[in-house]
Amino acid sequence: MARSDAGVPADTASADDAGLIVDVAVIGAGPAGLSAALNLVRARRTVLLVDANRPRNAATLQSHGFLTRDGVSPLELRKLGRAEVEGYPEATVVQAVVDEVAPDGARWRVHGAWRGTEVTASARAVVVATGLREEFPALPMLRAFYGTSVHSCVECDGYEKAGEPLAFVCETPDVVDRALFLAAWSDDLIVYTNGAPTLDDAGRGRLAAAGVRVDEREVADLEGDQTGMTGVRLVDGHVEPRTGGFVRPTWHVDTGWLHAQVERDADGLLVVDGVGRTAVPGIYAVGDVTPPGPEQLIVAAGHGARTASAVHRDLVGGLTDVRDAVQ
Fold first, then answer.
1. CATH 3.50.50.60: which residues of the chain?
2. Three-state secondary structure along 80-100?
3. Using one digit for the tens of pLDDT, what is the confidence trace for 84-127?
């Protein structure tokens, strides 16, 4: 039997009129959520893992930098992780889109649905690991090359593009720092701001000093064929040969279902302490949904393990009542 507090039997995951009764509900089954769930069940906590199966990196063919899994498909990595969690009797894994997490007495009510089937649970704690939604520059063919010729994570995919003539499409104010970082992988890099007024003279000077070319004209589209990307076409018709590139998305936090007064930063990310606690007792967050945003898969997994330890310790010590946490 799982335990709730030291030496005290917990509510085992069970179905009744209120749905599942568990120690912890983990919302999201990317590396952060899977790692949190795995470490929680190994602490003999009953866990509901809810997965909408809409990973942000679904288009990516390979993930990199994950020890023992370098080059594996991100979908395969999720599949392996989910199977490991499901192997524990303390785990209940369901596919659903969560539409509500709200205080319910001294616990949290979790509700979701998938293809007409509802999921309801009562949990002492909730770990939010839902990640982010990407929005790309409006280039018609970008999605066709995303995940193969074009990527968003330099740390994840820069090695495979090293030494190639690359494009970096970025419309945000952090263009200079991101471009200089990318330039470590290629000495033939062109930054495209797509007409966005994001550069000043100081920024242009920094890029020029690093040998990075800048084109501030509007981009019409990316060009290529079945073999991959071949160039960048500007609105004026000019086509610059490029074999690949990186794009800077804007990221959005979709957590309107979280009915708790959780502090958010200027980008809407959930503010947490060093181990994933929000300021609301019983609500934790981990992975891309927390500052600074997107991170490598192995980093997210590590954060998930660390947060699981904090959740377990807090449950042992007893959580503060959450009844005043409604927005």
1. 3-133+250-317, 137-247
2. HHHHHHHCCCCEEEEECEEEE
3. 999 999 999 999 999 999 999 999 999 999 988 899 999 999 99
